[in-house]
């Protein structure tokens, strides 16, 4: 018997057995169909209402034009369904406290030397603080 015929006969046998079982016992049909629907509903409630939006703290220690432009670009980033970031606070102490309490996914700090580094031709670095428990599940 060819591999295709073997596969088809085995698949048909499982299907026929399941249909006979479901005809005798309605709960046997409901379980495999309801469990994925319940899990889909739970996942939708837990993960589906925020879109791609991350709650962040954005601290801008520099008032120069490059820092302001970069901060504006972070605030205006869009995914295909929602804004990418929602700035909850701009206060450094509040942002760090909220992040450590798990209320923010990230704190982004634009340092005081940001504009000077750009004007000197250097690549500026940002300081970030990430609450990793939230981000592992929501962004991977």
Write the layout of secondary structure elements.
Blueprint: H1 3-24, H2 26-47, E1 54-60, H3 65-76, E2 85-89, H4 92-100, E3 106-110, H5 114-119, E4 127-130, H6 132-139
Parallel strand pairs: 1-2, 1-3
Antiparallel strand pairs: 3-4
- Content of β-strand: 15-25%
Taking the sheet with the most strands, its summary is: 4 strands, mixed
Instruction: Give the termini distance in whole angstroms.
Output: 45 Å
Summarize the amount of helix as a percent range.
55-70%
Number of helices: 6
Indicate the structural class. alpha/beta
The outline comes out as elongated
Write the element-wise H/E pattern from the N-terminal end onward. HHEHEHEHEH
Spans of at least 5 consecutive residues whose pLDDT stays below 50 are none
Would you count the extended β strands for me? 4
Mean pLDDT: 86
| Major beta sheet, strand line-up | 2-1-3-4
Cα gyration radius (Å)? 26 Å
Structure commentary:
The structure is a single chain. Helices cover 56% and strands 15% of the residues. It has helices at 3-24, 26-47, 65-76, 92-100, 114-119, 132-139; strands at 54-60, 85-89, 106-110, 127-130. The chain is elongated, with a radius of gyration of 26 Å. The protein is α/β, with parallel strands linked by helices.
């Amino acid at each position: 018997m060819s591999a295709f015929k073997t596969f088809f006969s085995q698949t048909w046998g499982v299907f026929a057995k399941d249909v006979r079982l479901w005809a005798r016992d309605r709960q046997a049909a409901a379980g495999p169909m309801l469990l994925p629907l319940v899990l889909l509903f739970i996942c939708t409630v837990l993960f589906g209402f925020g879109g791609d939006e991350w709650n962040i703290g954005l601290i801008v220690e520099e008032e120069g034009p490059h820092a302001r432009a970069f901060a504006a670009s972070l605030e205006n980033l869009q995914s295909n369904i929602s804004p990418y970031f929602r700035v909850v606070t701009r206060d450094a102490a509040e942002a760090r406290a909220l992040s450590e309490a798990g209320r923010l996914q990230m704190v982004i700090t634009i340092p005081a030397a940001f504009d000077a580094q750009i004007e000197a031709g250097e690549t500026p670095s940002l300081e970030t603080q990430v609450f990793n428990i939230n981000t592992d599940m929501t962004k991977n």
